[in-house]
Design brief:
Elements lengths: L1 E8 L6 E8 L4 H7 L5 E2 L11 H7 L15 H47 L7 H250 L3 H30 L53 H34 L6 H20 L26 H8 L12 H11 L2 H5 L10 H22 L8
Parallel strand pairs: 1-3
Antiparallel strand pairs: 1-2
Length: 628
């Protein structure tokens, strides 16, 4: 007979239940020898058994972990859930360890119990086999009943446990639902707060946008106010400039009148100053070389500065162009009006002086007739010869006084002499026929040309009319030449004073050399983009605009004594050379080398230069030359 020990382990009970099955047709020795080899210990995880409670708990679903997006708003709930989850994990680990220990100890305990019982019952086995078998059967029945009772009890306990577990799961689900509702409520609250914050942000952005619009509006208003203020300042400056130009023009006229008045006083002083000037020139020649080198360096620096200024001026040229054209037009109109008035006044003065000259000529002819008549009477008799001689002396004295009166009356207006344009046929042989003639004291007295009379009273041969006229014309030409030189000097001084200071000889020479070098570079195409300020204008003072170019300044430039004249050309030839240089056809070839912004202005200035040179040449080509 073979006995199999079946050990069953319940996870809810600590009691180990062993069931012994009797198998017939086995010898007893097999029971003793192979009992332990046929013991079968049921694995609590084998089929037919329920898993332990901790295994059920392990499969249980825990509450869902919160998302990372809600971690900031649900920090306290997350911490509580984390702590509860840790406690559950620790409890599961402890229960699992207890089950493992119980599973390891259960088979060993059953084996030890069976061995003890078998050792006790083995000696009596042979003698009491039948009793033993009945006892075993009885025991088996009892054990079976007991097992069934325990099984029922276990089933009840298991049912109760499952009910409790279901109730616990329901409570847990309810709690999880409540927590989910709380989380949903919290999420809704967070969403509401988020929407509120978004609304606040939108309101803040709207307020910021309104403030930016207000700031832009204020800035535009400020810019408009600034532009209006600048326009008012510009208008005020224009009025001040016009007023200043009018005052400057008035001052120049007064200065010119004063200079003309002083010119007569300086005539005598100039002779004395000429000697001192020669000494100064000799001293100045020594300094010319040093000054020339220094001025050359300054000119190089000035050329670089002019280039820099040219860049700045080019930027301002377009803005100033319209304003300058308008001002130039106004100045041109004022200049034309002034020239017209001066021309009319000059014509009136010329007509007045011509009438005076005709009157003086009539007086002179009347005196000349009287002299001829007395001369003829002197040939009739010796007595009448003596009377004629005394009459001749009185007539010459009268002629001398008349000529002196004519000279004084003519000297009162010396500025009109070089502008006289009457034909040569209307001029007389007397000194009074030339307006602007400024004779020296007693230069027109006929008695100076009359040879002294002999003591015997014999009359000398009088000077012929042609000789007398020739001498008077020579004196008139000498006076006019001196007056022309004086006018040129005054014009040069005026131009130099307008430039700010009187330029020295070496500075004027250096200016002419610079202009000649610039003309050569322009002709050869060595320079490009020439601007107004860098152009070699034929003026001592560099013009700022077209209105600054006038015939007087060009005259002072071309007829300057320091003007380069290596070939010994006359003034007329120098003027013609300048006209050829500034001729529109030749000048137009240089325009591609001129800056585009200044081409129109430079072309207009070149036209003014040509007109000034033509006027100057016309004066030289007049009936009696430039100065009669």
């Amino acid at each position: 007979m073979h006995i199999v020990l079946d050990i069953h382990y319940s996870p809810l009970l600590t009691l180990k239940q062993c069931r012994i099955h009797t198998i017939r047709r086995r010898p007893p020795r097999i029971f003793n020898t192979s009992l332990f080899h046929h013991l079968k210990c049921r694995n609590p995880y084998s089929s037919g058994g329920d898993p332990p409670a901790w295994k059920l708990w392990e499969n249980e679903k825990l509450p869902a972990e919160p998302n990372d997006d809600d971690s900031e708003s649900l920090s306290e709930d997350d911490e509580a859930i984390r702590r509860s989850r840790d406690r559950v994990a620790i409890a599961r680990e402890g229960m699992a360890q207890d089950d493992v220990h119980q599973q390891e100890a259960a088979p060993n305990q059953a084996i030890r119990t069976t061995k003890r019982s078998l050792r006790r019952e083995a000696p009596r086995e042979e003698t009491t086999q039948r009793e033993e078998m009945s006892w075993w059967e009885e025991e088996h029945r009892k054990e079976e009943v007991k097992r069934k009772e325990e099984e029922n009890k276990r089933n009840e306990l298991e049912t109760r446990r499952k009910a409790e577990e279901a109730q616990r799961k329901a409570e847990e689900a309810k709690r999880m639902e409540e927590e989910a509702e709380k989380k949903a409520e919290e999420a809704r609250r967070i969403e509401a707060e988020t929407e509120k914050r978004a609304a606040m942000l939108r309101e803040r952005e709207e307020a910021l946008r309104q403030r930016e619009q207000e700031l832009e509006k204020r800035e535009r208003e400020a810019q408009e106010a600034e532009l209006k203020r600048k326009e008012e300042d510009l208008k005020r400056r224009e009025e001040e400039i016009m007023k200043k130009e009018a005052e400057d023009l008035k001052r120049r006229r007064e200065e010119l009148e004063r200079k003309e008045a002083e010119a007569r006083q300086k005539a005598e002083q100039e002779r004395l100053e000429a000697e001192a000037a020669k000494a100064r020139e000799r001293e100045q020649i020594r300094k010319d070389k040093e000054l020339a080198e220094r001025m050359q360096r300054e000119q190089n620096e000035e050329s670089w500065k002019e280039k820099e200024r040219a860049n700045k001026i080019r930027l301002e040229a377009e803005r100033r162009k319209a304003e300058e054209n308008r001002k130039a037009e106004e100045r041109r109109k004022a200049e034309d009006k002034r020239k017209l008035e001066e021309f009319q006044a000059e014509q009136a003065r010329a007509r007045r002086k011509e009438e005076e000259a005709k009157q003086q000529q009539a007086n002179f002819q009347r005196r000349e007739e009287e002299i001829r008549r007395k001369r003829q009477d002197s040939w009739t008799s010796e007595d009448t010869k003596a009377r004629s001689a005394s009459g001749w002396g009185s007539s010459t004295s009268a002629s001398s006084s008349s000529s002196a009166w004519s000279s004084s009356s003519t000297a009162s207006n010396p500025t009109s002499g070089w502008k006289q344009t009457t034909p040569s046929s209307n001029r007389t042989s007397t000194s009074s026929s030339t307006p602007g003639y400024k004779p020296r004291s007693g230069s027109s007295s006929y008695s100076q040309h009359q040879p002294p009379s002999t003591p015997s009273g014999t009359p000398q041969t009088p000077v012929s009319d042609a000789e007398w006229r020739r001498r008077q014309e020579e004196q008139a030409r000498a006076q006019q030449e001196k007056f022309r030189a004086e006018q040129e000097r005054l014009e040069r001084e005026r131009q130099a004073k307008e430039a700010g200071r009187i330029m020295s000889k070496e500075e004027v020479v250096r200016l002419f050399q610079s202009h000649e070098s610039q003309w050569q570079k322009l002709t050869k195409g060595e320079i490009e983009n020439v601007i107004w300020d860098a152009f070699p204008w034929p003026m001592i003072k560099k013009p700022k605009d077209v209105a600054d170019i006038n015939a007087g300044a060009i005259h002072a430039y071309v007829l300057n004594p320091h003007f380069p004249n290596d070939n010994g050309k006359g003034d007329k030839d120098k003027i013609k050379e300048q006209i050829r240089r500034w001729h529109p056809d030749r000048f137009e070839r240089l325009m591609p080398r001129v800056a585009e912004d200044d081409r129109d202005r430079i072309r207009e200035g070149a036209g003014e230069v040509v007109r000034g040179l033509n006027d100057l040449l016309t004066k030289f080509n007049g009936p009696a030359g430039m100065f009669g």
